[in-house]
Structures are given as C-alpha cells and as structure tokens.
Amino acid sequence: MSSKLIRGTFILTLGTYISKILGLFYVIPFYALVGEQGVALYQYGYVPYTIFLSIGSAGIPLSVSKFVSKYNALGEYAVGRKLFQSGLAFMFVSGFFSFLALYMLAPMFAEIIIADEDQLSTVSDVVAVIRAVSFALIVVPFMSLIRGFFQGHQSMGPSAVSQVIEQIVRITFLLIGVFVVLQILDGTVVEAVQLATFAAFVGAIGSLGVLIWYWYKRKPYLDNLLKEDKGTIDISIKEIFKEIFVSAVPFVIVGAATMLFQFVDILTFNRAMADIGRANVAEQYFSTLNFKAHKIVIIPVSLATAFSLTLVPLITAAYVNRNWIHLKKQLNQTFQVLLFLTLPASVGIALLSEPIYTFFYGYDPTGFGPNILAKYAPVAVLFALFSVTAAILQGLNEQKFTIFSLLFGLFLKLILNIPLIKLFETEGAIIATAIGYTCAIVVNLLVIRHYAQYRYRLVFRRSILIFLFNAAMFIAVYLFYQFTALFLSTESRIQSMIMILLSALVGVIVYFYLSVKSKLLYFLFPDQRKKIEHRISQNK
C-alpha cells in the first residue's frame, strides 16, 4: 500500500507541477499580444473568479478524497458512491448559483475597481471580462467532486491527467483566440481578454471530458467494490455533506489566501492611485505587481504547496499518538527545509530581477518592472511559510486558528493598503501584503508552539546558518552577474536567459558546496545522505 501511496503522490505532484509550469510560461506570448491593459483586465476578471471558485470547490477534492477513503477502509463502499451520486447534483446546482452570483455582481465589482476616468479600462470593460470568466463556475465544482472521488480510491492518475489537459486546452484556446481576435479580426484588447478569460470554461470542459472517460473505463472495477460492501453504516445525505464541508473549510481558506490578498489590491489600488493623481498609470502598475511579478514570485511557493500535501498526515499521526519526539523532529525538518529551498530562490529572483523580467516580458527601459519584481520577491518566503504553518495547524486539528490568522492578516492588509499606496505607490501594496502575511504567520507559529509543545531554538540557529549561506551565495552571484553584464545585455531576451542560467548555476554550486561542507544538507535530507556522498565520491 505504501508503494501505491508514494506512486499516487508522485503522479499527483507531477501533474500539479506540469500545470504550474504551463501556467507560468504562457504569460510570455500572452503579454506580448495584449500588453499592460490586457493583463490588468485579465486580473480584474480572474481574481474574483478564483475567489468564488475557492469558496465553491477548492477544498472539495481533498475533503471528498478523505471521506471516500475513510469509508472504503471500513468496507462501506456504498457510502462513497452515495456521496458521488448526490454530490454531482449538488455541485452542479451550487456551481450554477455561483456563476449567477458572479455574473450579477460583476457591475458592482467593476464600479469599485475602476476609480477614475483617466484609467485605460472602463467599467463596461471590466464587467464584460468578469462575466466571460464566470461561466467556468458552472463546470469546475462539478469536476472537482469527480477528482476527489477518484483520489479517495487511491487513483491519482485521473486528477493529474485532467489537470494537465485542462491547462493545455485552456492555454491553447487562450493564445489562439487572442491571436485571431487581435491579429486577424482586428478586434479590441477587451474582446481578446474576454476570450482569454472564457478559456477557463473551455479548459474545464476538456478536463471534464477526461474524467468522464476515466469513469467509464474504471466503472466495472468500482461496481465490483459495491458487491463487497458491508452495508452496516446508514448515513444520511445531510450528515455526508456536513462532514465534507467541515473538512473542506480549512483547505478553502488556505487555498484562497493569496487571491484574497490580491483581491484587496483590486478593490483599493486604483482608488488610492487616483486619490494622489496617478490614475493614468494605475493599471500599468497594478498589472506589473499583481500579474507579471506575482507569476514569477509564486514559483518558489510551489515547494511549500508540495510540503503541505504530504505534511498533514505525518503530523496528524504523530500528534494523535502523542509522539512528541517524532512530531518535533518533523517540525524541525519542515521549517528548515522550507527556508533552505525558498530563501535562495527568492534571493535569486530579487538579484536577477532585470534579466528575469526581460526574459518573460521584454526589456523595460524605465526599470520599473524589474524594481517591483526585486522588491516583491522576498514575499515568496512569507507565502510559503503561511502555507506550511496552516498545513501544520490542520495536522494538529487546530484549523480554526488558520481562519483567524488569515482574517487578521487580511484586516491589516485592508486598513494599511490605501495609506501605504498613497505614500509609496506600488511598493506600498507590497509592504501591506508583507505586514499582513507576517502577522498571520506569527499567530500560526504561536499556536503551533502552544499545542505541539514546540520550541524554535534549533530552527532559529539553523536559520542563521542558512541566512549566512544565502549571503555568501548572493555575493558570488552578484559579482558573477556584474561580470556577465560586461559581455551580455539585459535588453536581449536570449542574452538575459544566458545570464540567468549561468548566474543560477554559480549560485547553486556555492550554496550546495557550503551546505555539504557544513553537513547542513545531511541534517536536512538524512534519507538522501548516502546518495549524495556516493555521487560526490564518484566525481572525485
């Protein structure tokens, strides 16, 4: 069973990473086609949609998976099938009402977002984009339940494959559609972005088709399980959904955290900029922060997401069994590995912000884009820490504090965003996000300290070492980067890519060498120690 679980986790993680990589690199041609106004409009529509989607279905796959797995283990296969049959109807209805809500609320959101006539986009433009993306809400919650049902049977392939197909179909439709509208039909940017957001619905249909195919392929096996059903548990539909939604709420909260912070920017950024007479550049600055920089900065956070998926059952098992030694060891390793991986990634993005920005979006002669990327990069560590501390609280069965900490962080973001934007413009929004996340993380850490009887002394000492190694890596990469700048130019996309690859290689070598020499790598990855030592000895 353990090998099956490892294989399933690997398949699901691989599917998630492929989806994220596809979701990252399509921005290069997309931005080239629609420009600053286009990506700002895209965010205006996509962030409210994602929040509605998170509320409607973000926690469903995992909570349904836990429910089905639980009753399958008891030999009560009919309970899971009962959930599946009634759940499909419920999710279709809830998805349809979510669609109607977002569709009808679009004018209200648009009135808040567009604060001044000097902005490039109008209220009607934003309404059109939000309404175009809202159609996806009809399908996605329905699709999420099917994924959860398969995962509950330890079948991760359907979820992984459907995720990848969804991204491929969405991105293909998006790029071809935008190109046709702008280059062949001579349409407007607004029409192109409408089609781009509607691609979420098309991608969901493609994913649903894959899941239906898997259902018919595996239905004989699932029907045979029903014949082995013990039939000793009679649970009502009401009790089923109560158990599902109570379990789903924490995952919804954590899954929507980043988007909720972005949503605060959507509601306040343009208004604050208009108040200081900067409405004419508000959309350009907004798109740089909330779309272009965010797409890059979120890359290291994927590591934290992977941790979150595997962390909950390990910590839950140690906590339930009151195995405090194992629990503390698990927490020590988790925090250290998280910092060990995400800190150098964010430092690297900040240091190489200019060539990275050029590679993705083209050369920015004003330097504004690279500057925002450099200042936003350290926030990646906060995103990752919140994600992991929230997962730990879930494992400790103290998820109510996750909700409190996030709401506290959002409240600080909300009250600080406008005054800080008025003082520091785009940097003010970054500062408000950093303050909100930092305070939420502090709350989570204090709760973990209390309920897990955990002290952070070892993590603090190792963190100092990790920071020193990052400082050494920074100096080495900075000197090498300045050297390459004598021969290569950040005005060229290809030369920027070469600078990124060479500088990253230097950073990895320095960081890896210091980690091996200090034996820090062996402490953080004890299971990989023999493999690392064997490879080093082979290369001597």
UniProtKB/TrEMBL annotation:
Membrane topology annotation: Multi-pass membrane protein
Main location: membrane
Regions that span the bilayer: 12-34, 46-68, 88-106, 126-146, 167-185, 197-216, 244-264, 296-321, 333-353, 373-396, 403-424, 430-452, 464-488, 494-514
Annotated InterPro entries: PG_synth_SpoVB, Poly_Biosynth_Transport, Polysacc_synth
Subcellular location field: Cell membrane
UniProt xrefs under CDD domains: MATE_SpoVB_like
KW Ribosomal protein (keyword) present: no
UniProt KW keywords: Cell membrane, Membrane, Transmembrane, Transmembrane helix
GO CC annotation: plasma membrane
Protein name: Polysaccharide biosynthesis protein
